[in-house]
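# nightly structure sweep
# worker-07 picked up a monomer target from the shared queue
# config: single-sequence mode, recycle default, output format = structure tokens
# input follows
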Amino acid sequence: MTEPATATADGRSEESTGAFAWYKTLGKQGQKAFKGAYLGYALDSYDFWVLPLSLVAISATFALDKGQTGLLSTATLVASAFGGAAAGILADRIGRVKTLMVTVVAYALFTALCGLAPNYETLLVFRALQGLGFGGEWAAGAILIAEYASARHRGRAVAMIQGSWAVGWGLAVVAYTWIFSFVDETLAWRVMFFTGALPALLVIYVRRNISDPPVFKETSETKGRGSLSQIFAGDLARKTVFASLLATGVQGGYYTLATWVPAFLKTEKGLTVIGTGGYLAFLIGGAFCGYLTGGYFTDRIGRKNTFMIFAVLSAALIILYTQLPPSANEYVLFLGFPLGFCSSAIFSGFGAFLSELYPSHLRGTGQGFTYNLGRGLGAFFPTIIGFLATGGSIGGAMLFGAAAYGIAVVSLFGLPETRAQALA
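# output follows
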């Protein structure tokens, strides 16, 4: 049984217990916001994964080397750093909901345009522009839910939003498996990009059903709007620097996997489209469970301990996954689940942790800047690995991605613990 909950003036339950307490305490408006943010991030994920899954076909179409292939992902992620930082500032100035709508339209439009690219240079430009919306959506959606959630359940509530990344990833793999099985490779990758236009329909729901959280509305009337200079002032400067390093390490490791695992499985493990989909199913299944479970860890043992544990485990699993010999492919298959679990569980604490580091009028700016600066710097890992792989194997080059998690571990020594902290 669950205990009765009292309600605040905005209709949000102050306290509740049970498996779905994190959802109940959001209140009616918060629950609507959760649905919009969940769908937004899932579709954001879908549009991101269209490229890594199509890399082999794109490379063949435009006769690209591994360095050029890696640059496609890096351009997306570097642009997303600018898009995320800009969206964070925008979220503090025009509101969380309006920013969410702008970013969804941006990533849907430019994903579809990628399918029309006549050459590599045009594709590179469109993919970079897609990154602007891709980076901004998470910043707006995560802050929106963090401000609706109660302090006790914030880690789990925002982690559930992170979990939608695995849903979008899974949908992209299903679409990839189906489209590439029935459509010629030279056209299939373009069809994949065209399907990325569908998320734009989400804006209709967001506009009609979601409003900004009360804490933002109240603060925006009494405080100045966010700016980058403010997050580098006083005691916030230290938080901004080390939070950026944390985001760099975690995302450098993750985007190593996101960019190169499909190509690694096809070229070095010799898997077919169907075989690659099967291996990715284990990775995605682990990722989904990791996102959900990681949120409980952050609320139980703290934000920093959760980052520390999963950073170490992720690095170890990358090494195992890429260095086992071809005769051990069945072990690689099953290793996909814990690898997906750990490399995704580490993300579960980001939305809550970064929101708790900054006051309300700087929350969008601080979170958008630190997370997306980390994304931009972490984006260079896939390119470096691409160039390293030019003179060797992809699996060997991916070891460089494992080192990224060491940066994350070091950064934690400069950051405070914020578990169960009320938002300022």
